[in-house]
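for the writeup, i need someone to sanity check this before i put it in the appendix. the sequnce is what the collaborator sent (i think, or maybe the updated version? ugh). structure was predicted straight from it, no edits. if anything looks off just tell me and ill rerun, i have time this weekend
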Amino acid sequence: MSAIKTLALVAHDGKKDQLVAWAKLHKLALGELTLFGTGTTGGRIEAEVGLPITRLQSGPLGGDAQLGAMIAEGRLDGLVFFIDPLSALPHDVDVKSLLRLAILYDTALAVNERTADALLGVAHT
């Protein structure tokens, strides 16, 4: 079992399907955690995976900042953020701020499936 107890799940539009599929695959492990998610991503996890998740604002509307504050306050153990490296993002500064805070506060951070699996302590499939 992972040392992670609170986990945020975030994905850019081009990666939401991938995050939902990953969450379905690891539903049992994720079900043992307190989950947070930004707007649409959180709604999709709740609706399509059936996991309870506290939904924050959409990333560009403040959700990334809300997660950053949670990290700074020590209320978030881990962040899974499936980033789309091939898309330009109008709120790139918010994403960079969130990642900077995760690094600064030594928060477990996964940006793809392999690191997300490692964060959960499960074998990569």
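The beta strands are 6-11, 34-37, 54-55, 78-82, 108-110. The helical segments are 16-25, 27-31, 39-49, 63-72, 92-104, 113-120.
thx in advance!!
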